[in-house]
Amino acid sequence: MKSIAIIYGSSTGNTKYAAQLVAEKLAGYSPVLKDLADISSEDFLEPDVLILGCPTWSIGELQDDWDTFFPQISKLDLKGKTVAFFGQGDCEGYPDTFADALGILYDEFAKTGCNFIGEVSTDGYTFDDSQALRNGVFVGLPLDEDNESDKTDSRVSAWVNSLKPHLD
Q1: pLDDT tens readout for residues 1-39
Q2: DSSP code for 120
Q3: Burial of 11 by CB count in 10 Å (0-12 exposed, 13-18 middle, 19+ buried)?
Q4: DSSP one-letter code for 128
Q5: Taking the model in full, what pTM does it have?
Q6: Closest CA to 34 of 49, 20, 13
Q7: Contact at 8 Å (CB) between 113 and 60?
Q8: How open is the CA angle 153-121-27, to the nearest 5 degrees?
Q9: DSSP string, 143-166
Q10: Residue range 58-114, pLDDT digits in tens
């Protein structure tokens, strides 16, 4: 079984909640849950699989901890590692930049040589635009705890199930 780290940045607690939910649904894989504020770039090198959580702030911006860590990402050598993203967005307040942070991180992590999993269809989402879209699908799991909290559990469950074939 591959080693898994769930690394998240969270300012309001919504992304931390989502990270805990992902960890709970992956309990059989013994993932390690880590707050980005408490780790270094070395923590990205140890696990086989990185599941990364980042909310989108304001008009398409990274959460503070991710913003601070951002310059270090392209220096990471993640060849052979698998990466998946999840994060919070605001489909009502910021429909033009919904879950942009996922796309921003995706583009930067693409420079590290990693492999991506966890893309999500746009079906069931209401938004106008997102930097997280590639070929018509999200690069990771967008959540909206403020406006669509009733969909969080089912979205996380479906997404985690889509990851499992890549974790053995």
Answers
A1: 899 999 999 999 999 999 999 999 999 999 999 999 999
A2: B
A3: middle
A4: S
A5: 0.98
A6: 20
A7: no
A8: 35
A9: E-TTT-GGGHHHHHHHHHHHHGGG
A10: 999 999 999 999 999 999 999 999 999 999 999 999 999 999 999 999 999 999 999
